[in-house]
Design goal:
alpha/beta; Rossmann fold; 8 helices
Length: about 220
C-alpha cells in the first residue's frame, strides 16, 4: 500500500523521451492495484485546444473526467520552451505561483501524486528559473528519464550533474529504450551504472506495458 505523501516529480534529460507515456502508464498500473493516484503536467507547450484529445494532459486524464485546469494550468500554443511559448502570447510564468500551485496539489493528495515536468531538466521557465529550480523548490523525490540513443550517456550524466548542483539526487533513473538506436539497453546500462554513485537504474523496453507495471511497483516501494 502506498504511504502518505508518496509523490514524485517525473523529469528527463530532454524532450520526447517518454515522460507522459511513463507517467500515464505508471498511474494506470497503480490504479489496477487499487492505489489512489493523480497525475499532473502543470506546464505544457504545443497545446491546441481543437486537438485536446491528442495532448499530454488528455493522456494523463484517464476517463476524461477532469477539467484541464486541474491537470495543466499553464498551457501555451507554440511548441517551444515554456519561456518562449509564453512570450509569444504576451505572458510569463510566475515561478512562485507555479511552485505554490504544485505545493497545494501535494498537500491535497495523500496518495500517489505524479508531477510531470516539461522537456529536460534545464529547460527555461522564465528568465531566471529552469525546470531544475522547480524540482528543487518542490523538494519531492524525482525520477530522471533518459533514452538509449547515441549521445544519451552524455546527456544523462550532464543532467544528473546539473541536478546535484542544487541538491537534487533522483531516487531513480529510467532508461527508456529509444527507437532505432545503435546502442542497446544493456550497453547503455553498463556504461551509465559506474557513474551514478548509487542511484538506482532501471530500463523500459519500448512500448512495453509490463515494464511500466514493474516500475510502478518500484515506486510504490519507495520509503
Amino acid at each position: 500500500m502506498v504511504s502518505m505523501g508518496t509523490h514524485f516529480f517525473i523529469s528527463a534529460t530532454g524532450t520526447d523521451l517518454g515522460k507522459t507515456w511513463l507517467t500515464a502508464g505508471v498511474a494506470a498500473a497503480c490504479r489496477a492495484r487499487g492505489v489512489a493516484v493523480r497525475s499532473l503536467k502543470p506546464v505544457m507547450s504545443g497545446y491546441d485546444v481543437e486537438r485536446h484529445e491528442d495532448s499530454d494532459a488528455a493522456r494523463l486524464d484517464v476517463g476524461g473526467t477532469l477539467a484541464i485546469d486541474s491537470i495543466t494550468p499553464w498551457r501555451f500554443n507554440a511548441p517551444l520552451s515554456p519561456d518562449l511559448a509564453a512570450a509569444q502570447e504576451g505572458r510569463k510564468i510566475d515561478f512562485a505561483e507555479l511552485v505554490g500551485w504544485c505545493r497545494k496539489q501535494d498537500e491535497a493528495n495523500p496518495g500517489l501524486l505524479l508531477v510531470e515536468g516539461i522537456g529536460g531538466v534545464m529547460v527555461p521557465l522564465d528568465a531566471r528559473h529552469t525546470v531544475r529550480d522547480w524540482i528543487a523548490a518542490l523538494a519531492i523525490p524525482s525520477v530522471l528519464v533518459c533514452g538509449s540513443y547515441l549521445g544519451s550517456l552524455s546527456h544523462t550524466l550532464t543532467a544528473l550533474a546539473a541536478l546535484r548542483e542544487v541538491g537534487v539526487v533522483p531516487v531513480l533513473i529510467v532508461v527508456n529504450e529509444s527507437a532505432c538506436s545503435a546502442v542497446s539497453l544493456a550497453e547503455t546500462m553498463e556504461s551509465l551504472a559506474p557513474h551514478l554513485a548509487g542511484v538506482p537504474l532501471v530500463t523500459l523496453r519500448r512500448d512495453n506495458t509490463e515494464d511500466l507495471a514493474t516500475l510502478a511497483d518500484h515506486l510504490l516501494r519507495q520509503p
